[in-house]
Amino acid sequence: MAANETDTPAARQPSQSGTARRPNTWQPGMKLALLSRRYVLRSTAAQGVTERYRSWWNDAEIMAGLNRKPRNWSMDDCIRHVLSFNNRNNFHLGIHRKEDSEMIGFITLMATIKNRTAKSNIVVDKEFWGDGVVKEVRARVMQFSFNRLNTLKYKGMVVGRNYPSIYNYLSMGFTCEGVFKEETAAVEGGRADIFHFAMFREEWAEQLKQQRGEPSAEAGRDDPATGG
Length: 228
What we know:
The chain is of the alpha+beta class and 228 residues long. It has six helices and eleven strands. It has helices at 51-57, 60-64, 75-83, 133-148, 163-171, 201-212; strands at residues 13-14, 20-21, 32-35, 39-43, 90-97, 103-112, 117-124, 153-159, 175-185, 191-200, 226-227.
């Protein structure tokens, strides 16, 4: 659990409309920045697309975790991809180390506002596999999704052969709602099951209450998300 997920209230200032809001807080359409214990998650711009970023999409081992073949993308393909996110209900956030701003991966968040659900995909450079990046980053994005996008359910769909991802969801307290047997063609050949995971906002709130030792089960209505 990331330290900055405790959501301490910040000073509020009245906006031109008369509604109180914090200065520099994120508003729909603005670039987003979130802090976790070790990372800064921020919207990826065209200049944030590097050869290292491109290599992730073209790496067979990394793409296998998403049950995809290497994309063989060019730099232009990558730029078009990151610019397709609107920072309203879908986001492409680079995962940057606090100590040196190195981008070591990214997380995409897709929210369906009508249904009040969200899901995400995470890619991490192989150098940082096993460092707990996925759980820390997903937790921070979940907090934003529940508090600022007002979602009620956070979902995950995992190919049955992706054992690390299954473990991560279970260790975070997600419920496996079902397994669709041989639901999809597997990138390695044959068929693969799809595991469907979910966590509801009230379940997340209860986790926070237990971790903080607070009497209230509210999920922290203030989220320190900044915009730019």
